[in-house]
Amino acid sequence: MTARILSGTEAAAAWRAEIAGRVGFLAADGKRVGLATLLVGDDPASAVYVRNKHKAAEAAGMRSFDHRLPATATQGEVEGLVQRLNEDEAIDGYIVQLPLPNHLDPGRVLVGMDPAKDADGLHPVNLGRMVLDVPAPRPATPTGILRLLDHYGIATRGMTAVVVGRSTLVGRPLSVMLGSKGRDATVTVAHTGTADLVEVTTGADLLFVAAGRAGLITGAHVKPGAFVVDAGTNSVDGHLVGDAVFDEVVEVAAGVTPVPGGVGPMTIAGLLNNTVLLAEGAF
Q: Does a structural domain hold residue 281?
């Protein structure tokens, strides 16, 4: 068996075209949608992510605001800029690019954000609303993953899903969203400390990997005919790779996302979607 490649680039292009249409509709009514980013420091990977987000926002017809602080910025300086973004009426949604430099407390920064401008869906208030299954911006990466499944007609209802990873960015919210009404998957959360990970993952119809460890998932971890979504991002010898050994998994699974070109483009589209929803007053 050779798996179908689940291209996030293809799925994101279709989603972004839909988003651009909604942005255009708002513009025709006199409303310009504004997305902002806050980048602290000069981490090369973060700089690339931010640049790609701005390019995507501008391509969708949004106004794009790029705010940067040096790596030496104090907690007070970062929180002060967050407050200014909260008050800027031109901005409908914004993100604080993570990770922050080690001397800063990301929890305090995120709490200081206005939940009604949280384009990443990571504010504690919005995460709580997600758990309660009430309207709020949903975390961008899990939202993008579910949209990717929909694009390829992959059902979650009645499926056994295993999520390997428990971060608040991907693993935890994804597990909640998969098990919510309307998605109706039966979900197990595993991680790098799980005993006999192979036994757990080979029971999955849908296997989601977001542990941040290159090579964690091999062909032996995959149930034949399962779908594998790899949200891992790791740099190995200067190359971006996922958490799964792609060349092995592709021979076992029915479908698998590549890295790069899989979950990454869907995350950016999820960010744009949240921003439009915020501009539309959906929450």
A: no
Complete edge-to-edge strand list for the sheet that includes strand 186-190? 4-5, 255-256, 227-230, 206-209, 160-164, 186-190
Matching residue, tokens 């390829």: 152
What does the alpha-carbon distance between residue 68 and residue 275 come to, in Å, rounded to a whole number? 20
Tell me whether residue 5 is in a domain: no
Same domain, 164 and 241: yes
Active site residue 43: no
Q: Which helix (H) or strand (E) holds 125?
A: helix 124-131
How many other CB atoms are found less than 10 A from the CB of residue 21?
Answer: 13
- Which is the catalytic residue, given 92, 97, 117, 205? 97
Is position 83 annotated as part of the catalytic site?
no
Given 92, 117, 118, 120, which residue is catalytic?
120
Give the torsion sign (CA, 215, 171, 39, 62). positive
Q: Give the pLDDT confidence of 175-188 residue by residue, as tens digits.
A: 999 999 999 999 99
Are 146 and 247 found together in one domain?
Answer: yes
Q: Where does the pLDDT of residue 2 fall: very low under 50, low under 70, confident under 90, or very high at 90 and above? A: confident
Mean pLDDT (the chain) is 96
From the candidates 53, 92, 118, 223, which is the catalytic residue? 53
